[in-house]
Structures are given as C-alpha cells and as structure tokens.
Amino acid sequence: MSGNELSGTTALVTGASRGFGRGIATALAGAGAQVIGVARDRGALEELRGELGGSFTAVVADAADPMVAGALVDRWRPGVLVLNAGATPLPRPIQHHTWETFSRNWDVDVAHVFHWTREALLSPLAPGSTVVTLSSGAALFGSPFSGGYAGAKATIRWLTAYAAEESTRAGLGIRFVSLLPQLTPETALGAVFAAAYAARDGAAAASSRGGAGPALTPENAGQAVIDLVTGNAYDRDAYVLASAGLRPLP
Ligand SMILES: NC(=O)c1ccc[n+]([C@@H]2O[C@H](COP(=O)([O-])OP(=O)(O)OC[C@H]3O[C@@H](n4cnc5c(N)ncnc54)[C@H](OP(=O)(O)O)[C@@H]3O)[C@@H](O)[C@H]2O)c1
After folding, report:
1. Which protein residue has the closest C-alpha to ligand 1 atom 31?
2. H or E element: which one contains 3?
3. Which atom, in ligand 1's list, is nearest to the CA of 186?
4. Which of 47, 35, 20 is CA-nearest to residue 81?
5. Could you tell me if the CB of 160 is within 6 A of ligand 1?
6. 3-state SS, residue 60
C-alpha cells in the first residue's frame, strides 16, 4: 500500500525482522508512519531497512527484556505500538515437553506484552494511541502440539482487554486491541505447525486448522493493522484475523 494516513505517526513493532511483524512494519511505513522495528536478528532488520529506507529504524534488542520496553517507550512514545514478537514452541505432544519448553511462550510472548502494556499505561502514551497485541486463534481452539502456547496467547488476549478497561477507567484515551490470527504456513512459526499437524493428521485436517479460504499472509496482517488504526469501524478489543480480514470476537 502507499499513502500518508499515518504521516507524523511513530509506530513501534516488536518482532519486525520476519513474518507478520515484517508485514506490519512494511504496511505502516507504506502508510507514512515512521517505524521502529525491534528484533534480535540484526541482518534481517538491516535488510528491511534497505527495503524501507529512512522510514524504518532498526533496534536490535530482546523485546521480552523489561529494560528494553521501558527505554524504548520513553524514547519513542509511539502512537502505534504493535506487540507481535513471539517464540516458536517446540512442536511436540504434551508428554514430550519439559516445564521449560512448555512455558517458553509465557517467558517471551506474555512477558513482553506484560512489560510493554504496563509501560504504555504508566507512561502514559498520548490519547489516541493504539496498542495492538498478537494473540492467536489457538487461544480459542487450543494447539495440542505446542505446550503452553494456547494458554499464553489466551492470557495475551485477556491482558489486552484488562488494559483497555484500565485505559477507559483512567480516561487515558489509549486503545488496546488483540488480534487472533488463524494458523498459516506463510510465516516461519506457522510453517512449523502446519507441517507438524500435516504429519500427524494429514494435509486436509491440518489446513482446516487455518480456517476456510486462502492462507493468511504477512501482507494481510499489515493491512489489518492499517485498517484497525485508521478506520472508525473497529471499536472492539479483540478480533480474529484471517485472509478475509478482521472479525470481531463475540
Ligand atoms: N503464523 C501463525 O500461524 C500465527 C498464528 C497465530 C498467532 N501468531 C503470532 O503472531 C506473532 C508473529 O508470528 P509469526 O508467525 O510472524 O512468527 P515468526 O515468523 O517466527 O516471527 C517471529 C518474530 O518475533 C521475533 N522475536 C521472537 N522472540 C523475540 C524477542 N525475544 N525479542 C524480539 N523479537 C523476538 C522474531 O525476531 P528475531 O528472531 O529476529 O528476534 C521474529 O521477528 C507471534 O506472536 C505468533 O505467536 C502466529
């Protein structure tokens, strides 16, 4: 996309080096935002900087580190904050997880959403700011091959709803919205699970986990975030994300 709906806006995206985060960072830059992309893979961030030019600033850091969350919220005070970073769980049945592998997405995904959400509320970000978090369709349907992933992603959904409530109660004017994407083979994380479920259940059953219609792409995720941030029609605190777009949770 190209436009200027978000010119003058600073957007910060965690996990911008690949997958949905990269698609979201690209869409936000295309809409005119100044984008700060946080991830650990310097080479991938520099490649994205080469693509997006001066509208993209790469920050090589661990998004689950509370010091990183505090320092970057203070420094950039983003008008759009996308908390997308997430670990890829080991694809194994439950009895083959250890507590450490089971809880990986709590230590990365949930901890990072917790730290950044807290900073957004306490800072506070400016009225009219939007914080988008990446939960998962697994929060609704489970994900039996990924240990504590589904529970961690359900917690992100609720944490985001609690933050929305606190923002309203304190009159902060900060919007908090969680997205629950369907499983897709179009990203590194999704490809691992699409392959694992296909090996266990067969290709047809595995692809039905991704819902009907074409597979969700990073570009779809980018467009959905632009729609959320710039459209007036999206006033709920959680949406299922599919290639067809956003569907509010009941
Ligand atoms: N793909 C799906 O089917 C699917 C479905 C539902 C929900 N989701 C969620 O959507 C989000 C994005 O997933 P994806 O499919 O795009 O995965 P992906 O392709 O594996 O990308 C994950 C991103 O998170 C970053 N990351 C991981 N740990 C990090 C950390 N500690 N600090 C900073 N960055 C970190 C990675 O960057 P570095 O390695 O460079 O740090 C990478 O940019 C995740 O939260 C995931 O759970 C995905």
Report:
1. 62
2. none
3. 1
4. 35
5. no
6. strand
Among candidate residues 134, 41, 45, the one with its CA nearest the CA of residue 85: 134
Q: How far is the CA of 47 from the centre of ligand 1 (A)?
A: 17
Phi, psi of 173, deg, nearest 5: 70, 20
pLDDT tens per residue across span 140-196:
999 999 999 999 999 999 999 999 999 999 999 999 999 999 999 999 999 999 999
Segment 52-103, tens digit of pLDDT: 999 999 999 999 999 999 999 999 999 999 999 999 999 999 999 999 999 9
Q: Which amino acid is at 17?
A: S
Report the half-sphere exposure of 87 (CA within 13 A, side-chain side).
26
The answer to whether residues 91 and 23 touch, using CB atoms and an 8 Å cutoff, is no
Binding site membership of 220 for ligand 1 (Cβ less than 6 Å): no
Crossing angle for the helix pair 19-30 and 218-230, to the nearest 10 degrees:
50
Find the 20 Cα to ligand 1 centroid distance in Å.
7
- Cα distance between residue 161 and residue 167, in whole Å: 10
pLDDT digits (tens, 9 = 90+) for 216-242: 999 999 999 999 999 888 999 999 999
